[in-house]
Design a protein that fits this description.
The chain is α/β, with parallel strands linked by helices. The chain is 17% helix and 33% strand. The chain has 2 domains: 132 residues, Probable inorganic polyphosphate/atp-NAD kinase, domain 1 (Rossmann fold), CATH 3.40.50; 137 residues, Probable inorganic polyphosphate/atp-NAD kinase, domain 2 (Tumour Suppressor Smad4), CATH 2.60.200. Strands 1-4-3-2-5-6-7 form a 7-stranded parallel sheet, with helices on both faces. The protein has a 6-stranded antiparallel sheet with strand order 10-9-20-17-12-13, with no helix packed on it. The termini are far apart.
């Protein structure tokens, strides 16, 4: 394995739609020779299945002449060939020259991969080794197909909306963050509610005591927001979601707003402090009186897609929804 000098400074597995296997992928100008190809690989090294899957993917890509780049601390747990390039961090510089970021793991690992991919312009291709894995494009049994499609560049790329998150305290901006799925404002102690006031586009909507508030993207509508009772929103729909968690109020229903709206959650003064979670990974304590503003993100996350299955089919497959008795759509 080689250590790269650039590093010092880092869905469901349902069958393809007809013809999807032969779908053309991205290609350079006709007649021009293709330069060296490189893929960045991220895996959940705490799982034996992920280590074995990573080894299979690496060997398949190298056999096809595609270089592989891996985080050095993850490589320590993997039996990888010497041709694999090691980097210390997954920065935009380390991703330079990579055509894909392949992520092997569950939802948490996929969200970690999204942190790496955002801002680099490199699409993320997720392989689900966990339970639901809505961000994943394939399952662990599809590794051979994944490698084949990557080698042939038989994939498409779509962009997913993100959230930009800003925290104010005493009028001053004290923190900036982002999220692919959701930004959640939650209570800290189990015995007391969090008192909040909700605002949309500069106007107050309502206030109540609750366990928390979830501000989500359509992508995140099947994650925490779904567990809190929010609606499922198709990913191609442009919207923002605001979902209360166990609110003590008559009007405490999930709200769907314009994608250009600005959502704000104010933690009331004189109450307990709260905590901000972005994608369940990055956290910040919110003192009483803090204000969290959420708006459409300026930088999307790019996802590589291997097949053209509709989101409806993904939803049915991921949640194992009962559809027996369906007689087919009329033509």
């Amino acid at each position: 394995m080689t250590d790269s000098s650039s590093s010092a400074s880092a869905s469901a597995g349902e069958p393809d739609a007809p013809g999807a296997a032969d779908a053309p992928g991205p290609a350079g100008p006709a007649g021009e020779p293709e330069g060296p190809r490189t893929v960045f690989l991220v895996a959940h090294t705490g799982r034996a299945a992920a280590l074995r899957s990573a080894e299979l993917v690496v060997l398949g890509l190298l056999k096809s002449g595609i270089g592989v780049r891996v985080l050095a601390h993850e490589a320590r747990d993997m039996p990888l060939p010497s041709e694999v390039e090691l980097v210390q961090e997954c920065t935009p510089q380390a991703l330079a020259g990579c055509e894909l970021l392949i992520v092997l793991g569950g939802d948490g690992t996929l969200l970690r991969g999204a942190e790496f991919a955002r801002g680099s312009g490199v699409p993320m291709l997720g392989v689900n080794l966990g339970r639901v894995g809505f961000l994943a494009e394939a399952e662990r049994d599809d590794l051979d197909r994944v490698v084949d499609r990557v080698v042939r560049k038989a994939y498409e790329v779509e962009e997913r909306m993100t959230l930009d998150v800003l925290v104010r305290n005493n009028g001053d901006v004290v923190h900036r963050d982002w999220a692919l799925n959701e930004a959640a404002v939650q209570k800290v102690s189990a015995e007391r509610m969090l008192e909040v006031v909700l605002e949309i586009d500069g106007r107050p909507v309502t206030g109540f005591g609750c366990d928390g508030i979830v501000c989500a993207t359509p992508t995140g509508s099947t994650a925490y927001a779904f567990s809190a009772g929010g609606p499922v929103v198709w990913p191609e729909v442009e919207a923002l979601l605001l979902v209360p968690i166990s609110a003590h109020a008559l009007f405490a229903k999930p709200l769907v707003t314009s994608p250009d709206s600005v959502l704000a959650v104010e933690v009331q003064t004189g109450t307990q402090h709260g905590v901000l979670w972005c994608d369940g990974r990055r956290t910040l304590e919110l003192p009483a009186g803090a204000r969290v503003e959420v708006r459409r993100g300026t930088v999307p996350v790019r996802l590589a897609r291997l097949h053209h299955a509709s989101f409806t089919d993904r939803l049915v497959a991921k949640f194992a929804l009962p559809v027996s008795g369906w007689r087919g759509a009329p033509h």
